[in-house]
Amino acid sequence: MEEADRGSGDGERFDRALAAGLRSLGRDLGTVARMPLPPFRQPRLLRWLAHVLIVGITVTTTVGNLDQLSQRYHLGHTVGTLMSLLQAAALLLALVRPVPAWWLSLAANTTASALATVPSVQGPEPWPWGPPALFAHGTVTLLLALRLPARAAWAACVLSIGAPLLLQQTTSPGPYDTTVPLAALAFGAVTLVGTLLRGRREARTRLVEQETITAEERARRTLLEERSRIARELHDVVAHHMSVISIQAQVAPHLVENPPDELRENLAGIRENALEALTELRRVLGVLRSENPGDPEAAPQAPLPTLERLDVLVDNARAAGLTVCRESAGEPRPLPPGVDLSAYRIVQEALSNAIRHAPGSTVRIDLTYARTGLHVRVTDSGARTAAPPSPGAGHGLLGMRERTAMLGGDLATGPTHDGGYEVSAFLPTAAPTTLTTPTTDGETTP
Q: Other C-beta atoms within 10 Å of 255: how many?
């Protein structure tokens, strides 16, 4: 009983799959949708080669069909010309609408073969496919296979062989040499070529799409990694301020004689909130700094760099083969920690890019202290020797852009007129009036 039920279930599934396949095949061979033939991409002179070839085949087969149908098949001038023109129209239509063109070609050739007569005194003629008609319909079948799924292309191939074979079994024009085996070979070959080319084109398209998606994901991951790095570095800056707030809130009651209870309570609340914020910052930092958040040894204890350590960067760049000069303008003054750290990182990334892409160049570092912020400008004179390929190109610029956008500043990068490269950033020292959020393309939104 169970085996019977299982067999019945398998039969129903097969019937449903067969019905779905036939419906899909009917949609493919019943569509009149426009499907232009894609031109050649390279070289440019061959972009429309396929269209020129189809026009040439159309003219040649039309002339051949006029003789084959009118004279050899004895259809007369009027009918022979009409059938030849229908076949020519099918060839030209196949450039944009391959399915209607294939039906028109099959109908025209089948009708012409059914109306053909070959007197016995004339001798055997190739039938039911004349040579020009066979070549023309094979071209239409190829154009169909290039743009339809493989199942529809092979179904069209079978119909192209089956229709003349059925005609051959039901009627005879007179003495003839059958062309059905040759048609089967020709239509099978062009269908195979067309489906293979279409599959290759689809695979290439999917590969390009996947490469595009991969590049976008890589860029997004790089952006997130850079933001994570910035967040790790700024943690200590924020933690320092929160610690100061906590200590000041603890000390403040002792600076006032007989402070009221409300003041003690408010200051105690401030200190408690500051301590809670510090605890949360440490937890977040543990997640950002390590793939294993539970590892207490993951957080490094090295102090964050500032512009006071810029000489170390300059010495390292000189040791790498660069000629570095440093200039300052304006009155140097203490900078907010975030600005100081970001300025150092921007100079560091600019020097690293010069080492990678402009070996042996002369680099100039200009720091200008303005009333509203700090101008950082790093220029190089261009490579003096061939630069080796660098897989990390672009990541440094991304970090500069993120740091500048975070502070509400401006960044400009690009080549100079003398073949070098320039990085120019303005980092405001005052807090922005509105909060800005960097987006994935480097712009900022309020």
A: 8
Three-class DSSP category at 125: strand
Sheet holding 323-329, edge to edge: 323-329, 362-369, 373-380, 421-428, 410-415
- Cα angle 330-335-340, degrees, rounded to a multiple of 5: 105
Both tokens assigned to 363: 């680099």
User: What is Dmax (Cα atoms) for the chain?
Assistant: 135
pLDDT tens readout for residues 165-181: 999 999 888 889 999 99
DSSP H helical segments within 68-115, as ranges?
76-93, 98-115
List the beta bridge partners of residue 379. Answer: 364, 422
Residue 74 and residue 67 in contact, taking contact as beta carbons nearer than 8 Å: no
Q: Which region, left, alpha or beta, applies to residue 417 given φ > 0 means left and ψ of -120 to 50 means alpha?
A: alpha
Tell me how far apart the alpha carbons of residues 106 and 60 are, in angstroms, rounded to a whole number: 18
| Segment 321-339, tens digit of pLDDT | 889 999 999 888 888 888 8
The answer to whether 246 and 271 are in contact (CB under 8 A) is yes
Sequence-distant (6+) residues with CB within 8 A of 161 are 180, 183, 184, 187, 188
- Is 61 within 8 Å of 53 (Cβ atoms)? no
